Amino acid sequence: MKLSCLQENLSKGLGIVSRAVATRTTLPITTNVLLATDQGRLKLVATNLEIAIVTWVGAKIEEEGAITVPSRVLGEFVNSLPNDQVDLKLAPATKSLEIKCARFEARISGMDAEDFPPIPEIDEGTVARIDAGVFSQSLTRVVFAAATEDSRPVLTGVNADFDGKMVTLAAADGFRLSVDKVALLEPVAESVSVIIPARALTEVNRLIGDSSDPVVITVNPAKSQVLFTMDNVRLISQLVQGNFPNYSQLIPQGHSTRTLVDAEEFLRATRAASIFARDASGIVRLQVDPGDNGLGRLTISARAEEVGDDQGDIDAKVEGEEAKIAFNAKYLSDILSVLAKGEVVLETTNPSSPGLIRPGGDTDYVHVVMPMFVQW
Amino acid sequence: MTIGDGPQRCILHADLDAFYASVEQMDRPELKGKPVLVGGPPEKRGVVAACSYEARAFGIHSAMPMRTAVARCPRAIVVPPRFDRYRELSRQVMDIFKSLTNLVEPLSLDEAFLDVTGAVASSGAAPVHLARELKSTVTTKVGLTISVGVAASKSVAKIASDMDKPDGLVVVDPGQEGAFLAPLPIRKLSGIGPKTEERLRRHGIATLGDLASRSDDWLTREFGKRGPELAALSRGQDARSVAVHRAAKSISAEITFPQDISDPHELGLQLDRLCQRVAARLQHSPTPGRTVTLKLRLADFSTFTRSATPGVPPRDALALGRVAHGLLEREVESGRRFRLLGVGVSGFVEQRQPPLFDL
Fold first, then answer.
1. Which residue in the set A172, A328, A368 is minimally distant from B353, CB to CB?
2. CATH classification at residue B322
3. Which stretch, A217-226, B273-282, B329-338, has highest mean pLDDT?
4. Is residue B83 located within the same domain as residue B130?
5. Domain range enclosing B287
6. Closest listed residue to residue A111, CA positions, set A221, A28, A228
7. B247-268, pLDDT tens digit by residue?
8. Whose C-alpha in A208, A243, A329, B88 is 20 to 30 A from the C-alpha of B53?
9. pLDDT tens-digit profile of A302-352?
10. Boundary residue ending a domain (B139, B172, B205)
11. Which of A154, A155, A175 should be substituted to probe chain B, the one whose Cβ sees the most B Cβ atoms within 10 Å?
12. CB pairs under 8 A between A and B
C-alpha cells in the first residue's frame, strides 16, 4: 500500500471513524483503525462489534493494500501534523505504517488487515430515505429518553417503526417516554419494526451534522443489522432483539390542565430550581394558576431542608383547572433542553398521573414523564 | 403535614380471610368445614402460617408452634404451604382492587389499603356500596372472601376490617372515629405490640379511649415523641396517604433448625443459604439497604439481634455474607446452642420516583 492524501482530510476521516473504535475490549484489533485502498480512495473503518463506521478520504493511490494500526496513535499523530500532503506507505515485512508529512516521519506498528472483523455488507432489505434535518431533530428529541443501564436491553434501544410514508421513533427508560412520528421521503416497500441501539443513533445524529443530504436507512432481511448511509459515511449497527413495550397505552389520552409557556423561560426556571432539588431527591414542584382569561402563571419551585429554597414564576396560557405536579429535575430539564426554543405545552391530569410535554404547534412529538410523590 | 384541602378521604382496608387456609379449603373441597393448619410439620418445629376458622375455635392462631397447635386440636389437618399458588391468587385479588382505584397499597399477599376517594367522587356511590361490590367481585371471580373496613384514614380502616371477620364489612363514618376506637383494647392499634402494651397498662391505660384522653405533654414525658403519635392514632387522626409504591422496609429470611446447632461450620453453611435467599430478593429492590441484621435464638429461647452498617450497602450474597459472618463469629462460643438463625437487610432509601411502567 502506498498513497498520498491531505492531512486535513485524513484527520477529519480518522475523527469520524474514531467514534466506533472499541475502548474496553477483549479483541485488541478492534482498538485499531483499518486503512485500505478502495477504488481510488482511502477507506477508513473502525468497529467495536456493536457498531462500525466506514468513511472515505480522497487519495492518490500508487499501490493497493491494507493495514490496521492503533486508532489513537495514528489519530493523535495526524492531528499534530501541519496541513500538508501526507504520504502513507505499508512496510509489509514489519507490518508497520510509514507516515511522511512535511519534515515529519513516523512508523506505527500495525496488525494484518485480514484479522480485522469483517464489516457486514447490507445491500438488500427494507430501504427508507429521510431528510437529514428532520431525522436529526427527531433523534435529538427521542434518543435521550432511552435507558442507559443494561438491566433491560430493549430499553437501551430506540424502537423504529417504518410504516408507509412515516417512521415512528420511541424510547423509554421506565420513568419517561419520548415518541415522534416523522415523514419519510418516499413510502417503504414493506412495514418493518426494529430496535436500534441508542448509542448507534447518537452517533448517526452526530454524523449527520450540518449535512443536508438525505439519510438512507437499510434494514437487512434478517432484521439483525441496520445500515445508515450518509454523505461519504456509513454506519452499520447490530439491532437489539426482543419486544419493545407497548408504549401507546402509556400516553395519556386526556388532561384536566393544559399549560402553554415559553420553552426557554421554563428551562431557565427549572435549572434554577435544580440547584436546590439536588439535595431534595431531585424534586421540582410545578404549580399552575389559571389566572383570568387564561392569562395564568406557572410557578417552578424546589426546597431542600438544610440548604434553602427557590421559586420562579413564568407567564402561562392555561386551559382548565389549577394544577400541582412534581417532577425529577433531571427529567424535566432533559426534555426542555431538547425542545430548546418556542412554545412548550404541559398537559397534566393529577399529581400522581403521568404528565405530557410537547412542543407548541403542529407536531406528532410527545414526551411522557412520571411525576414524583411529594407531600404538598 | 396536612391532609390537604381535597374532599373527605375514603380509605378501604381489605383483608382476605384466613388466606392460606381458605385457599387450601377452596382447592381441596374435602378440607371444607375442618380445622386446617398451614405450615411446617410439628416434628420439624414447624410454625402455623395460617389456620382455618374451624381451627381458631380451638384457640389456635398463626405464628403458634405447630406442636402446640396439634396438641390443642389433634384432629387438625396439617397442610404444607404452597406459596406459588397463594401469590397467583393474591395477584388476581390485587388486580380486582386496582380495577377500582389505582391507589392500592398492598401490605402483604393478603391485605391492602385502597384509596377510593376518587371513585366515590366520580361514581357518586356511597363508600359502603363500593365496599360491598368489591367483596362480591372477589368472591365471584376468585372464590375467596374478604373483610373490609371503611374509614377516612388508614389506621381506622385497618381496625374496622378486623372487627367482623370473616366476610365482614364495617364502616366508620367520618367524625365517629373517636367513639369507634374508644372502647377497643390498645393492642388493636397497629404499632402497639406486647411491650408497649405492658408499659401502657402499668399507667392504667387499657383502651384506646384511655390513651386518647391523656395529654400530649404527659405522653411525651413517658414515651417520647412516639407517645403523642400513638395518642393521635387512638383518636382516629391519621393523615398518612395510601402509598402505591411502598419500598420494603426490610428484607429478611430466617430458619428454625430441626435440632439446635452449636457447630460453627454448620451455622456458617446455614447463614450462607439465608444470605443467598435474602440477596435474591435484594436484586428486585430499586434501592440498596444499608443495615445488615443477624437474628439469633438460643436453645433457651432467648432472642437477640446484632446489626452492622457497612460503608457500601450489600447488593449480593457475597457482600451480605461477609458482613453477616462477621456478626455471627462474635456470637459463636463453645457450648452455645442456636435454635434459630436469621439475616435481614434494612435501611432502604425511600423511593419517591415511581415508574411510568413496570420494567
1. A328
2. 3.30.1490.100
3. A217-226
4. yes
5. 250-346
6. A28
7. 567 889 999 998 999 999 999 9
8. B88
9. 998 778 999 999 999 999 999 999 999 999 999 999 997 899 999 999 988
10. B172
11. A175
12. 47
Query: What's the pLDDT at B222?
Result: 86
User: Is A370 in Cβ contact with B353 (below 8 Å)?
Assistant: yes
* Cβ <8 Å between A370 and B243: no
Chain A residues closer than 8 Å to B243 by CB: 373
Residue B38 region by backbone torsions, left for phi larger than 0, else alpha for psi between -120 and 50, else beta: beta
A331: left (phi over 0), alpha (psi -120 to 50) or beta: alpha
Q: What percent of chain A has pLDDT over 90?
A: 87
Same-domain status, B183 and B166: no
Contact at 8 Å (CB) between B349 and B343?
no
Nearest residue of A to residue B6, measured between CA atoms: A376
In angstroms, what separates the C-alpha of B115 from chain A's closest C-alpha? 13
Please give the tally of structural domains in chain B.
Answer: 3
Q: What are the residues whose beta carbons fall under 8 Å from the beta carbon of A95, sequence distance 6 or more?
A: A67, A109, A110, A111, A112
For position A278, what pLDDT does the model report? 87
Q: What is the pTM of this model?
A: 0.58
User: Cβ contact (<8 Å) for B356 and A370?
Assistant: yes
Chain A residues bordering chain B (beta-carbon distance below 8 Å): 151-152, 155, 172, 174-177, 245, 247, 250, 281-283, 328, 352, 354, 368-370, 372-376
ipTM of the complex: 0.77
Chain A partners within 8 Å of B352 (Cβ): 281, 283, 372-374
Shared domain for B342 and B297, answered yes or no, is yes
In the residue annotation, B111 being an active-site residue is answered as yes
Instruction: Indicate if B116 and B230 belong to the same structural domain.
Output: no
Taking the C-alpha atoms of residue A168 and residue A47, their distance in angstroms, rounded to an integer, is: 28
Reference B42, options B16, B76, B85, B17; nearest CA is B76
Q: B199 and B302 share a domain? A: no
Residue B90 covered by a domain: yes
Residue in chain B closest to A252 (alpha carbons) equals B356
Residue B204's domain is classified under what CATH number? Answer: 1.10.150.20
Q: Are residues B15 and B40 in the same domain?
A: yes
User: What is the identity of the amino acid at B187?
Assistant: R
Give the model confidence (pLDDT) of A251-307 as tens digits.
999 999 999 999 999 999 999 999 999 888 889 999 999 998 879 999 999 998 778
Verify that B58 and B116 share a domain, yes or no: yes
Q: What's the pLDDT score for residue B4?
A: 39
- Does some domain include residue B243? no
Q: How many other C-beta atoms can be found within 10 angstroms of the C-beta atom of residue A264?
A: 15
The partner residue sitting opposite A152, judged by closest CB among B350, B352, B359, is B359
Kindly report, residue by residue over B120-174, the tens digit of the pLDDT: 887 888 899 999 999 999 999 999 999 999 999 999 999 999 999 899 999 999 9
What is the CA angle A204-A210-A211, rounded to 5?
75
Residue range B39-84, pLDDT digits in tens: 988 888 888 999 999 999 999 998 899 999 999 999 999 999 998 8
Last-in-domain residue among B137, B172, B207: B172
Cβ <8 Å between B354 and A370 = yes
Beta bridge mates, B38:
B50, B79
Which of B24, B54, B111, B177 is catalytic? The answer is B111
DSSP-derived letter for residue A217 is E
Residue B32 placed within a domain: yes
Residues of B near A (Cβ–Cβ under 8 Å) read 1, 4, 102-103, 243-245, 350, 352-357, 359
User: Which chain A residue has the Cα nearest residue B118?
Assistant: A350
Q: Would B357 be classed as within a structural domain? A: no
User: Residue B4's closest chain A neighbor by CA?
Assistant: A376
Pair B216, B157 in one domain = no
